[in-house]
């Protein structure tokens, strides 16, 4: 078993780490305060060819693997959680369904702009009454004169304000009391389509989180993504890949919190010595380092399985669950090591703590991950 990165993966990590340190991290705290979306950063990532990293080259992608995607998410999240989640959702929720289920024409029309960064990727799944129970979808679409007519709403949708189009789930028929759920590609500029950006969030302030409202939105019949009635299956497959991204985010944010805590512990003096000399602090830092390494290994394993075409549902849930809960623990301890200073914005760790909480909720809550794992092990 070889744990070395390939030459290409190592080059990507070096490039994106330098970019994150030089372009992303310096303004992260100010963007968080201003709740300002870093549009310029994603334009630069597009120029670097990173926005379509794991997608085929014929659509403008980089043809890289899932491990490379995880590396980019981790490094961006280490610098800024909001930037990390924007990129992760762009690829795993916005681009992946088009790549997996789209026709050649749909890929040329809708995936290519995502790869170039011309449009950010987004995916319309969650609704006010369809969160963990995604099958509770109430948005509906019916065919009329060769067009899908869509009515309904979505909530907590990442990137939609900067997406020219997105795939969304809708009920396309009801048979014997059962919902037929399909995925449809809809332009956000279509008449009757509104993107509402007015959430007040705990963290990830410089990421874009919106509501979608569809009132008689009409799109061509050929905008059906994949097969009719398979939207539910498609989004389950999509979420498996997305959970690798959330796991990588957890590793990145935790790494940032750990680095700040280690630096602070070496500099802060109490009782005449650096607090890093106290065993109580050493044990905290040792546990943090250990858990981050374990989470990173699990993220890479899930990504490797995906790249090998092997089943990875269980491993994706394990990496997402462990990395997200580990991240909350590490950020909590980073605040604790900083003491009163940790509660203040100037030391950054309170931002990591706030940003980390979403990871236990998005892409399936911790409770849902345990249900998936239990199912996969035969319970």
UniProtKB/TrEMBL annotation:
Residues 229-377 form the Acyl-CoA dehydrogenase/oxidase C-terminal domain. Residues 122-217 form the Acyl-CoA oxidase/dehydrogenase middle domain. Residues 6-118 form the Acyl-CoA dehydrogenase/oxidase N-terminal domain. Signal peptide: none annotated. SUPFAM superfamilies: Acyl-CoA dehydrogenase C-terminal domain-like, Acyl-CoA dehydrogenase NM domain-like. It catalyses: a 2,3-saturated acyl-CoA + A = a 2,3-dehydroacyl-CoA + AH2. This is Acyl-CoA dehydrogenase.
């Amino acid at each position: 078993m070889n744990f070395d990165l390939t030459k290409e993966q190592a080059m990507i990590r070096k490039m994106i780490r330098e970019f994150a340190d030089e372009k992303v991290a310096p303004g992260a705290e100010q963007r968080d305060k201003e709740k300002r979306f870093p549009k310029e950063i994603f334009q630069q990532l597009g120029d670097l060819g990173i926005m379509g990293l794991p997608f085929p080259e014929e659509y403008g992608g980089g043809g890289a693997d899932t491990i490379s995607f995880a590396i980019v998410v981790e490094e961006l999240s280490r610098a800024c959680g909001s930037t990390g989640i924007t990129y992760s959702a762009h690829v795993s929720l916005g681009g992946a369904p088009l790549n997996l289920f789209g026709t050649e024409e749909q890929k040329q029309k809708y995936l290519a702009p995502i790869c170039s960064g011309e449009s950010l990727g987004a995916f319309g799944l969650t609704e006010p009454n369809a969160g963990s129970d995604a099958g509770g979808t109430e948005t509906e679409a019916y065919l009329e004169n060769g067009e899908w007519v869509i009515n309904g709403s979505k909530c907590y949708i990442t990137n939609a304000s900067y997406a020219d189009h997105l795939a969304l789930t809708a009920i396309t028929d009801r048979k014997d009391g059962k919902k037929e759920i399909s995925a449809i590609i809809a332009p956000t500029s279509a008449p009757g389509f509104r993107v509402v950006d007015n959430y007040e969030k705990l963290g990830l302030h410089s990421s874009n989180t919106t509501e979608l409202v569809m009132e008689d939105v009409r799109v061509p019949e050929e905008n059906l993504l994949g097969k009719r009635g398979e939207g539910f299956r498609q989004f389950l497959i999509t979420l498996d890949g997305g959970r690798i991204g959330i796991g990588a985010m957890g590793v990145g944010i935790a790494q940032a919190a750990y680095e700040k805590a280690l630096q602070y512990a070496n500099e802060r003096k109490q009782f005449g010595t650096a607090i890093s000399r106290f065993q109580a602090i050493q044990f905290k830092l040792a546990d943090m380092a250990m858990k981050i390494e374990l989470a990173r290994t699990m993220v890479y394993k899930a990504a490797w399985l995906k790249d090998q075409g092997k089943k990875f549902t269980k491993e994706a849930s394990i990496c997402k669950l462990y990395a997200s809960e580990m991240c909350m623990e590490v950020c909590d301890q980073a605040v604790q090591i900083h003491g009163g200073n940790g509660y203040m914005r100037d030391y950054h760790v309170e931002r990591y703590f706030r940003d980390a909480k979403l990871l236990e909720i998005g892409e399936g809550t911790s409770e849902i991950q345990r249900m998936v794992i239990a199912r996969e092990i035969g319970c």
